[in-house]
Design a protein that fits this description.
Elements: E1 3-5, H1 9-26, E2 31-34, H2 41-48, E3 58-61, E4 63-65, H3 75-82, E5 94-95, H4 101-110, E6 116-119, E7 141-144, H5 147-157, E8 166-169, H6 172-176, E9 180-186, H7 191-199, E10 217-222
Parallel strand pairs: 1-10, 2-3, 2-6, 3-5, 6-9, 9-10
Antiparallel strand pairs: 4-8, 7-8
Helix pairs in contact: 1-2
Bound molecules: 2-phosphoglycolic acid.
2-phosphoglycolic acid is lined by residues 37-39, 120-122.
């Protein structure tokens, strides 16, 4: 798979923001799947600085920690702060995975499916919180986070002890039903796993490698 290498984080952010913008301008009722973490922060910054009518768009987040949703590091707080409060999107149109997870799946199915899914990649090859070993057919579910993920995400919580250990994630099967997928990766610590996932063996040990089975994926990287 082609990995498009961009010159800077600014270019990575604006390239993906342009894809989201074009999608919403062309199809105002678009259903989008959105990521959290540090990589997409620049993309959200770009998006809120553009004149874009979000009033018909519907969003689904990839994952949430099992934790108090009002905590400043919850993904609900992240999305409010970085996108939702800065656009005219309707709060009722913004969905996060919830239990029962089958009801969340029904909500996606009821919206006639996802038009565009934006993903990051974890240093262990996860997409959303589908950790190594996740079934390619997996659906939205409660998961235990990998030790590596807890370690990586402890930078947001101050310590490994205070970092959530469980999450609800969209499944790999759910993600793969998106019509279009864009994966963004930033930093040379992601380059090796990105190459392995995009051009190595397709295996459940490397969850992002499932994307090799999708026919409309764009991959962008900057160091
Ligand atoms: P990051 O996370 O953007 O904070 O590196 C990416 C991911 O885990 O999907």
């Amino acid at each position: 798979m082609e990995i498009k290498v961009l010159k800077s984080y600014k270019e990575l952010s604006s390239t993906v923001a342009n894809i989201v913008k074009r999608q919403i301008k062309k199809h105002p009722l678009s259903k989008l799947v959105l990521p959290t973490g540090s990589t997409p922060l620049g993309m959200y910054k770009e998006l809120v600085s553009r004149e874009l009518d979000w009033s018909h768009a519907i969003t689904f987040n990839l994952d949430v920690y099992l934790m108090n949703v009002d905590h400043p590091e919850s993904y609900q707080s992240y999305m409010k702060k970085n996108l939702f409060e800065k656009t005219n999107i309707y709060p009722d149109h913004c969905h996060f995975p919830f239990r029962p997870t089958s009801a969340f799946e029904d909500k996606i199915a009821g919206s006639m499916g996802i038009d565009l899914c934006i993903l990051g990649i974890g240093s262990n090859g996860h997409i959303a919180f589908n950790e190594p070993g996740s079934s390619f057919l997996s659906r939205t579910r409660v998961v235990n986070l990998d030790e590596q993920t807890i370690e990586d995400n402890s930078r947001f919580f101050g310590s490994v002890e205070d970092t959530p250990k469980q999450a609800i994630t969209m499944g790999l099967g759910t993600i793969m039903e998106s019509k279009k997928i864009v994966l963004m990766a930033n930093g040379d610590h992601k380059l090796n796993i990105l190459n392995v996932a995009m051009n190595g063996e397709v295996t459940e040990d490397v969850p992002a490698s499932v994307l090799q089975n999708h026919d409309n994926v764009k991959v962008f990287y900057c160091d």
